[in-house]
Fold this protein.
Amino acid sequence: DAGITQSPRHKVTETGTPVTLRCHQTENHRYMYWYRQDPGHGLRLIHYSYGVKDTDKGEVSDGYSVSRSKTEDFLLTLESATSSQTSVYFCAISGQGLTFSYEQYFGPGTRLTVT
Amino acid sequence: AQSVTQLDSQVPVFEEAPVELRCNYSSSVSVYLFWYVQYPNQGLQLLLKYLSGSTLVKGINGFEAEFNKSQTSFHLRKPSVHISDTAEYFCAASNTGNQFYFGTGTSLTVIP
């Protein structure tokens, strides 16, 4: 268990509202990632972070922003939610932490529905 | 750019039969390779990984994979599957240890 939690686990929101998802880790890994998972597309990278206040875009970053003010927390914000952002969102960690991890460890996911 | 291809989107197999899930990657440099399993409504769990050394890698739940550099493949195998192996399987590659590339997944269904 890599000590990754995501909150909320489920959320239903209306089109046009802002939404923030939280990822929290307990092992101080350097890298943190946000993915979305949709049928037929597998996992697609939204944003990632390589340190506190250091973030970069992934392949599907439009409509999303992130922040990392502490090593342990990585926030994903949908600035104005759209129905196309209905998905399951996963957080992952890797790299140097309490131990070094070449692989990614994943959180349990957040199921987001935009109505 | 690196990419990962999982050649089969769905694989049905009878219980206790062997199975192979295929994965090919593109890269001209050394890679780290991974297989993950995802059970319904859960996150991804690491099955096994290849970092270096022996090309045959053993993982959890009786799975193994073989790294083949000449064929740029990393196929996942199990000699005898169980109903509980029904899940989605993802192959992934990384050449830096901090950027990862995933295949689109293979849905394994074990038939009683």
